[in-house]
TrEMBL record:
This is Roadblock/LC7 domain-containing protein. Coiled coil: none annotated. InterPro entries: Mycobact_SerProt_Inhib_Rv3364c, Roadblock/LAMTOR2_dom. The lineage of its organism: Bacteria, Bacillati, Actinomycetota, Actinomycetes, Kitasatosporales. Gene3D superfamilies: Dynein light chain 2a, cytoplasmic. Pfam families: Robl_LC7. It comes from the Bacteria. It comes from Streptomyces melanogenes. Residues 10-102 form the Roadblock/LAMTOR2 domain.
Length: 140
């Protein structure tokens, strides 16, 4: 497996790669644009994965709301299990999302814990870097 990451906020993916059997990860915006990806993926694969994961999240939000007979639902995570392994997707509160792929031997509990930890770290960094006005007040 090639290690390392590419992209402005790709640092969030580095700790995810430390988990045994994790093969790739992507940081994406809610609308499916790549913010960072692991070097195990080509840029084209990262872009395709990001677009697909954005669509998957939208479908899961719609399904969760429909099953609950509600207008909308907030997704905390999506797990996809296949014969190739697991994909875990976790959105942040700031419009980004982390998607990680591990082969069939990955420990899903460790993957989920690490992905959610990194999502929290990304949120903390985003909040710390919130824009300030001329008076020094933080804008929401």
């Amino acid at each position: 497996m090639t290690s390392g990451t590419t992209g402005e906020n790709a640092w969030v993916l580095d700790a995810i790669l430390e988990i045994p059997h994790v093969r790739a990860a992507v940081l994406l915006t809610r609308d499916g644009l790549v913010s960072g990806y692991t070097q195990a993926l080509s840029q084209a694969s990262a872009e395709r994965t990001a677009a697909i994961m954005s669509t998957v999240q939208g479908a899961c939000r719609t399904a969760a709301a429909a099953f609950a007979d509600q207008e909308d639902a907030r997704i905390r995570q999506v797990v996809i299990e296949s014969d190739h392994g697991y994909i875990l997707v976790a959105p942040t509160a700031h419009g980004t999302c982390v998607a990680a792929y591990g082969d069939p031997d990955v420990r899903l509990d460790l993957l989920a814990h690490r992905v959610h930890s990194q999502v929290a770290r990304l949120g903390e960094k985003t909040m710390a870097a919130a824009p300030r006005g001329a008076d020094g007040a933080t804008h929401a």
